[in-house]
Specification:
Layout: H1 7-11, H2 15-37, H3 44-50, H4 55-59, H5 65-78, H6 81-85, H7 92-103, H8 109-122, H9 126-148, H10 156-173, H11 176-179, H12 187-202, H13 230-253, H14 260-266, H15 271-275, H16 281-293, H17 308-319, H18 325-338, H19 342-367, H20 373-389, H21 392-395, H22 403-417
Helix pairs in contact: 2-3, 2-5, 2-8, 5-8, 5-9, 7-12, 8-9, 9-10, 10-20, 10-22, 12-20, 12-22, 13-14, 13-16, 13-18, 16-19, 17-22, 18-19, 19-20
Length: about 425
């Protein structure tokens, strides 16, 4: 949890330092509230109260909540010792692993939630979105220069693409608390990432000759089947329509910003009619999650001519397409909802466990060796890439439908998952 320095400590400071200390106190208060409550649910008044300031007093340091969120993000980056160490002569694979280790420490949960909330909030606010895109571009340019300095990476375009991949994995890694909470602070995960980064830096990678063009990362057929009875069939059709409307609205507008009236209008039903098919919006989110979990190809058995890692690359390519916008945003929104709903959290935990087990078993079957910790780590890293790509629309929109990015995924994912 971020430390909020008491107001009395600021009052006792020399005058030139008071403004800086007050600003830091506001940032610490906002950091904690955004991470624990969410950006939308945190009011300016709540931040000011937590920082022991009046609202006008806070506005003297930050003109609005959007600018405050960006400043919080910059503060997190500025405080990162591992990020500062990159490019200072340390071994690149070692430095990247240290960066991930820093973010994945048990005491850094607030920092991870902030990274997710920054992306989530910017989806609804274009000014914030544009600021986040510019901010991440600066981070990538810095990382690209560092990667390009590695002896084995001579192509500037490849170095730029690798910087995209590293930051996408990092964005997925901040979801570790829902992907696999037992791995938080696990040195074995950091060691595995260190080995995979060394391979990425040293070798260019090669795409498999067997390629599939997947239309989507999901499959149809998750809707409740219609019974033969006419009245019950109409009820099922209405419920399926409500679930489809909720999935789209929760993804594109966020759970908090989606009203019951919006849901009813999108499902072409009255509000009283809507309540005949749902007990609450919170319960509807759980139903949407279960519907989504039943549709993801990632949880289905892997088979066919292509290897498992090549099939993973195909799924990631499909997930990076413009047509996957709703699926990407829904993945982030379900993660957010799991922090506030125990039933959804349990369902998400079970789903991630099932996917990891499926991937680990498929990888071991392909290689003819028993499932072990290494396969579990490979499966987890694959999930990290998926969750990182879920943020493309706000963190790295230039990668959507980008052929260079899809080519990189097909060459590098088999290396990364190993």
């Amino acid at each position: 949890m971020a430390e909020v320095r008491p107001a009395a400590a600021v009052d006792d400071a020399p005058l030139p330092l008071r403004g800086e200390l007050t600003r830091e106190r506001v940032l610490a208060a906002a950091s904690h509230l955004f991470a624990t409550q969410g950006f939308d649910a945190t009011s300016v008044e709540a931040v000011a109260a937590a920082a022991e300031l009046t609202v006008p007093g806070m506005y003297r340091h930050f003109p609005g909540k959007d600018q405050l969120l960006i400043s919080v993000a910059r503060r997190v980056t500025r405080m990162s010792r591992a990020r500062q160490a990159l490019g200072e002569g340390t071994d690149l694979a070692e430095g990247l692993a240290d960066l991930f280790e820093e973010y994945l420490e048990a005491g850094q949960i607030e920092r991870r939630r902030l990274s997710i909330e920054l992306s989530r909030a910017s989806f609804q606010n274009m000014e914030l979105h544009d600021a986040l895109v510019r901010y991440n571009q600066l981070l990538r340019e810095s990382l690209t220069a560092t990667i390009a300095g590695a002896a084995a990476v001579v192509d500037e375009r490849e170095a730029a693409l690798l910087s995209h991949l590293v930051l996408i994995i990092l964005m997925g890694a901040v979801h570790l608390d829902t992907l696999d909470p037992e791995r938080v602070g696990d040195a074995r995960l950091t060691a595995f990432l260190r080995r995979r980064f060394a391979v990425l830096i040293a070798e260019p990678g090669a795409a498999s000759a067997t390629r599939r063009r997947l239309p989507s990362t999901t499959v149809d057929g998750a809707s409740e089947p219609e019974p033969k009875d006419g009245r019950r069939a109409r009820s099922v059709r209405t419920r399926n329509r409500i679930l489809a409307a909720a999935e789209e609205l929760f993804a594109l507008h966020g759970y908090d910003a989606t009203t019951i009236e919006m849901l009813a209008a999108r499902a072409e039903i009255t509000v009283p009619g809507l309540y005949r098919h749902m007990t609450s919006k919170e319960a509807l989110l759980v139903d949407v999650a279960q519907r989504a979990f039943s549709r993801y190809r990632l949880a289905a058995p892997f088979g066919g001519e292509a290897g498992v890692t090549d099939q993973l690359a195909d799924l990631l390519v499909a997930f990076s397409a413009s047509g996957e916008r709703v699926n990407r945003r829904l993945a982030v929104e379900l993660d957010f909802g799991a922090w506030r709903n125990a039933e959804l959290a349990g369902g998400l935990t079970d789903f991630h466990r099932r996917v990891r087990s499926n991937l680990a078993s498929s990888l071991s079957a392909q290689e003819g060796v028993p499932t072990g910790d290494d396969h579990e780590l490979r499966a987890l890293v694959a999930l990290m890439v998926f969750m990182g790509i879920a943020h493309l629309d706000t963190v790295d929109p230039g990668l959507i439908d980008d052929r260079g990015w899809t080519d990189l995924l097909r060459r590098r994912v088999p290396q990364l998952v190993g």
